[in-house]
Amino acid sequence: MKSKKAIIIGGGPAGLTAAYEFLKQTDIQPVVIEMSDYWGGISRTVDYKGNKIDIGGHRFFSKSDVVMNWWNDILPIQSDSEEIRISYQNKSAVIKNIPHAADHDKVMLVRRRKSRIFFNKQFFDYPISLTPETVRKIGLFNTFLIGMSYIKASLFPIKEVQTLDQFFINRFGKRLYRLFFRDYTEKVWGIPCSEISAEWGAQRIKGLSVTTTLIHYFKRLFGKKNNSIGQKDTETSLIEYFLYPKYGPGQMWEEVADRISAGGGILKLNTKVTAIHFAEGKISGVTVTDALGVSEEVHGDYFLSTMPVSELISALQTDIPANVSEVAQGLKYRDFITVGLLLKKMNHTPDDNWIYIQEPYVKVGRIQVFNNWSPFLVKDAGTFWVGLEYFCNEGDNIWDQSPEAMGEMAMREMQQLGFIDAAADVLDFTVIKMPKTYPAYFGTYARFDEIREFTDAIENLYLVGRNGMHKYNNQDHSMLTAIQAVENIKNGSVSKENIWSINTEQEYHEEK
């Protein structure tokens, strides 16, 4: 019997990774408490009448060997995925076309990445690059002005970059930023880029610039193609291939949950943490309430939180400094709605994973084509299964619309964009809402260090994951924060600096 327990709040990628690592590395028993009725958080797969939805789209790619090996241990790479030779460390497999039925279900498929921007009724590469095709579409004069704007930004950059618009202008020049970045980004966040911290760009865009996209283009044109899943020398936004669970991201986390349960971990779904208790300066336990309203107190030795920071601070049963409460209450989040449309036909027949909608006359921000993530997400291979993504805030006009109204808006906007001819092209639809999808880099975020100083001082509390740290991390970074927290506990380290340092710079932490 394990002598100590780790209480893990949240069953998303970070929480489940931590639980699995406790079982692999320590004699500590993990107890995972998840308020919803599914595992994986936003990295889940929603099944609607046999058609599967990936909320937000999750490419399984990382520059961290730790994460790549971790995924491959759970769901190994299928050896017959596409007609390219994929090298991954010491593994090599000849990939062939994916049949609509495969021998093995618990596998990762190798997928080609393709995303484009839809702007002015035309498709452009995503990320945007000044290729001959782009020049033809935007015209020589516009290209000249973009070039001059970029040269100006390169020669006379903004010295002290504070806001996201300044970050974009330094990277791409003012004209390219206004054409291809501003409208979509402001649609995502609902406020001007001038009110968003530049830190968001540093985390999400990293090394991407006009120069890197041009270099990447010419390497592809004249050089040897990079068919390695590792792709460590490639900017993340420019990778050519990624891994993807056969039945969507939820398949990964459901399998991890099964392994945790089989290994002796305790899993609690439909259970909400309503209070966090203190004793002698440490957290001693949590009060949880299940779907039937039954409450109990669960005690533990270590506590890992992936719950939104604002909710964590509210649940702590101790004296909270006034400044910490003020910052926590002022943290903002962006919420998310996916409208799944089942189509009997679709104009353009896109082979994209995502289509970024830069057009200002529609509210949809991005469209996923689930057929191109995995053919196994679509019940009928003769149909198109797409997800229209809307960015909103809980309680606003979009969030409060009925499913019927959201479905009608999605159909109407697909017609406006020219992707379908009529509502009759839509066979069925569903609407999925996800609150607190994106932690925002505005509100009181500039003072977040005041919260971190307070929580870091609680010796047996570790904040991990996207919402747990209020950092717009990718799935792999969230996993790395969890892995690092478990290693710190195993090694007896009380410092949390190495957890917070993951994904804070231009390059990945493990490459330093």
Automatic annotation (TrEMBL):
**Location of the Amine oxidase domain:** 14-435
**Pfam families assigned to the protein according to its UniProt record, in alphabetical order:** Amino_oxidase
* MF terms in GO: flavin adenine dinucleotide binding; oxidoreductase activity; UDP-galactopyranose mutase activity
Query: What InterPro entries does the record point to?
Result: Amino_oxidase (IPR002937), FAD/NAD-bd_sf (IPR036188)
Q: Which Gene Ontology cellular-component terms appear in the entry?
A: cytosol
Q: Which domain of life is it from?
A: Bacteria
PANTHER family hit by this protein: UDP-GALACTOPYRANOSE MUTASE
Q: Report what the protein is called.
A: Amine oxidase domain-containing protein
